Structure formats: structure tokens, C-alpha cells
Amino acid sequence: MNREQLLREIPTIMGVLNVTPDSFSDGGRYLDTNAAIEAGFAMSRAGAAIVDVGGESTRPGAQDVPAEEELFRVLPVVEALAKRGITVSIDTRKAAVADAALKAGARIVNDVSGFRDPEMRRVAAEHDASIIIMHMQGTPQTMQVNPHYEDVVSEVLEFLVEQAEQCMAAGIARERIWIDPGIGFGKTLDHNLTLLRHLPKFVATGYPVLLGASRKSFIAHLTGEGDPTKRLPGSVAAALWGARCGVKALRVHDVEETLQALLIWQALDGGARLQPV
Length: 277
Ligand code: HH2
Fold this sequence. Notes:
It is built from eleven helices and eight strands. The chain is α/β, with parallel strands linked by helices.
């Protein structure tokens, strides 16, 4: 057993690159274009197969950013990374931003609002892009006010499958569609834990599942760690749990550390996956 064999078995790592002043854990760090590009290169070298570039924070209470400002932040970064042959995903809720980023070389559209906007579906289809449909209840301004579900797992699943069907109807190929339960987006601690425990149900849909649990506040709620940059151990534990449940990709801030943990887990566990309960 060697590193190359293990790499083939573990989930794909997507590195988080926020070109924003206000993201919850790395806001302001990569606002400078050159710093952002360097950080993207570093993530790629550390083992990220995808770099997810975002120009708008979607943390609870975040303000909307005009499309021009978002484009100003992300476009040079997308272009520079894509030119180096790095697979770039654009994390945006705006069709105009997705369109420009895809023209600049991005290959994946990651929409935390779940492709509700028909224009977003049209743009992704036109570019033959891969897409990540994420579930969010409400909007970033309101989502944590009083999230409510009768049955969080079936409601989130139903939304994702319906949106995937809408996307296919718009001309996006099934094999280009990924789904994501949206940890922390309009969810209480209980909702987040229930979704994490039931990840195998999302895997059982047949759509590849992406999990974004890195540094999120459920870790703070369970451990008391208020500083997002100190949530690496909890983030790695969640990543390994996701891998065990069969997710195909992990969206993480700490690429090198997560990769190391995944390689060891894969070597020991042999890739057994949990089944839906
Ligand atoms: N989480 C965040 C942003 N985009 N996309 C997907 N598909 N899944 C996620 O869980 C997800 C996401 C939030 O994290 P981050 O980008 O670090 O913070 P912010 O929104 O404050 O920029």
C-alpha cells in the first residue's frame, strides 16, 4: 500500500479560498489578489484537487456584495489558478459572476443557494460546467434566526433531488451534478448533527456528495472553541466521518492536515463505508 493507491480511494479535497474581507474564519487574509493566488497555488501543492474561490461571505448575517465587487475580487484569482491547470470552482450565488468565472477558466459552479435561479442553471448548462447544489434554509441574513424543519433529513434530501432534476431539465448532465447538505446554513446544532449522522442517505441518492464542515460553528457549540482558526481537530474529525460515510469531496480550509489524516484513516480502515440507517 502506498500514497498513490491511498489517494485514489479517499475523497477529493476542495480547498477554500475566500477573497473577502469578512469570511468567518479567513476573512481579510486573501483579499489581496497576489496573496490569494499564492494561497491557491499552495493549496494545490498541498493536495487540493479543486480550489473553491469565493468573493462573498455567506456567514450568518453577512451583507450581500454587488456583482461588480465580487467579480473584481475573484476574476484575477480564477484566471491565474486556471492558467496553471488548477481545477477552479466558483463559489457564488450570482449568474453573472458564475458566467464570467467560467469564461475565465473555472470549471465548477458552487451555489450555496442551490441553483434556485433559472439563470444560474442556464449559465452552467451553456458552459457544460459541473455544479454543486447546496441546501440552505433562508438567506445568509436570516438563516440562523429560527431554523425549523419537521424532518431535516428528508426535507434537505428532497430539496437537493428536486433541484438536481431542475438542473437536468435545464440541460446539465447528471454526471456533472454534486449535492451538499449545507452544514451550518439555516440549521441548529441538532439539525447539523442529524444531517451528519445521516450522510449515507445522501450518498445513497447516487449523486456525489460534497461535505463542508471545516471550522464551522457546530464545532464551537460542541467544544467551546470560539476561534474558527483553532477548530482544526474538530474539522478533521468531521472530515474523517464524512469519508467513512462515503462522501466524494470535502471542502476544507486546512488541506495538508486533512489530507494526512485521510491517508492514515484510509490505510487503517480500508475504506469501509457506513450504510444508511
Ligand atoms: N460553506 C461555506 C461557503 N460555501 N459551499 C458548499 N458547497 N458547502 C459549504 O458547506 C459551504 C460553501 C461557508 O464557509 P466559508 O467559505 O469558509 O465562509 P464564508 O461563507 O464566511 O466565506
